[in-house]
Amino acid sequence: MDIKGYLLPFAGALAVFLVAFLLFDMAIMNMQGLSLIFYK
Fold first, then answer.
1. Contact 13/21 with Cβ under 8 angstroms?
2. Residues 36 and 25: beta-carbon distance below 8 Å
3. How many CA atoms does the CB half-sphere of 25 hold within 13 Å?
4. pLDDT of residue 19
5. Could you tell me if 25 and 35 are in contact, meaning their C-beta atoms sit under 8 angstroms apart?
6. What residue spans of the chain are helical by DSSP H?
């Protein structure tokens, strides 16, 4: 089993998911005036 061959696409997918989550969080913050990360 090639660990790097499995870990690299997984890391890429995780990075894309995190970026998408940040964009989604900013969209919610702009629409509703709140943020899931910087909750006040």
1. no
2. yes
3. 11
4. 95
5. yes
6. 3-32
* pTM (two decimals): 0.56
Q: Give me 25's structure tokens.
A: 């969080």
How many domains does one find in the chain?
A: 1
Q: In a 3-state reduction of DSSP, which class is residue 8?
A: helix
Q: What's the token pair of residue 15?
A: 């990075």
Instruction: Name the maximum alpha-carbon separation found in the chain.
Output: 47
Range of the domain at 35: 1-40
- pLDDT digits (tens), the chain, 40 positions: 677 788 888 999 999 999 999 998 888 777 765 555 555 5
Question: In a 3-state reduction of DSSP, which class is residue 28?
Answer: helix
The residue length of the chain stands at: 40
